[in-house]
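Problem statement: downstream parser choked on a complex file, so we are re-checking the raw output for the pyridoxal-5'-phosphate run. The parser issue turned out to be on our end (a line-ending mismatch), but while we're here, posting the original submission so the record is complete.
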Amino acid sequence: MTDAEIRAEFAHHDRSVARVNNGSFGCCPASVLASRARWQRLFLSQPDAFYYDSLQPGLARSRAAVAALVGAGDASEISLVDNATTAAAIVMQHVAWSFAEGAFERGDAVLMLLYTYSSVKKSIHAYVARAGAHVVEVPLPFPVASPAAIVASFRAALALAKSGGRRRVRLAVIDHITSMPSVVVPVKELVAICREEGVDKVFVDAAHAIGQVRVDVRDVGADFYASNLHKWLFCPSAVAFLHIRKGDPAAAQMHHPVVSSAYGNGLPMESAWIGVRDYSAQLVVPDAVDFVARFEGGVDGVSRRNHDKVVEMGVMLAEAWGTFLGSPPEMCGSMAMVGLPGCFGIDSDDDATRLRTMLRKDYKVEVPIFHNSRTQQVATTDANGDQVTGYVRISHQVYNVREEYEVLRDAVNKLVLDGFSCTQLRPSPPSQNQKMLAH
Ligand SMILES: Cc1ncc(COP(=O)(O)O)c(C=O)c1O
């Protein structure tokens, strides 16, 4: 693809903003959006014919395209769902039923990472803890020096969860790439540890994985593996896949939380009909796969170049700010964490949100900010000796250009020169008069 073709495919992006945050919402090129519009028109032109003739064959093609991309046995191992949040709900509902129906006992453990995504943590609590599970969190170091540091932490937490063999661990939830802070997790190794240690089920939440790192679901070896297709694979919102191995006895017991007339036909078919709605995001998966194939090296080529670029941009920013990357390059996919100058005094998640909002509104940069509340095991001071407590999470996707990272670099440098600190963004406490008026 030439630069001009890429610019044309993403001409609908607001060019006034330095958008270095592909990670949150992904992106969808014009050619895939055009295909989506064709599917939507086909439906509206004759809904009954669409329902009887086109919908299910179209969804079957999408499942086959995903199966080929992720090394699944065949399309019957793939369910298409709206997003990773839905995939997590399917798994958690299944595990909750195992508690409710007595296959698992109250007090059996469920393991998740400290940096498991907030919605997934809530899903674990809403379904599984409520059904009787004891939830154990794996404390992860950040900044992180090596995959071995994560493996060591995971082993220690698993031993704690097993409580000397007195407790069964029924489920481990492992992120392939954590969201915030973003780190590529040695997922294959952690799944193997779970197998050795007798963990019943492993769910890999790989919301960010496909398009950022090579995905081979058989090689990872989890029971359940889910990835969004709308983050890094150029699909429009909202579509994700959930993989379950053929022949896994759990497959027949897994159900979509939205029950329809397809209930009991297997998860791929249940997910393919959850009532009347717009299925076009799921129908354009083959177009997104064709789009990515237009790049040299296909999806692997795209992710390799994004990785190289995001590391290059991360190093450029860290050098300009006197800081460092939050992980070694091999633990970055197409996203990287870069320390912000300690003088910003980022002391809370609210500070991080307010700073992000200011960068969006006043500097036209879109970038998520992470507040690191942990006491760190490794030195995390910047070149001026100030403690680094905040990080930007930068992304690189095919549409990004160096100038966008320079806008971010210059905005932060200007704030440092201006003597900015997050205290300036905090709401001032109410005065005595305001307090009296409130009563
Ligand atoms: C690790 C992880 N899991 C789950 C999700 C939820 O994805 P979605 O909002 O598309 O369901 C995200 C979103 O960023 C994520 O990073």
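For whoever reads this later: DSSP finds 16 helices and twelve strands in the chain.
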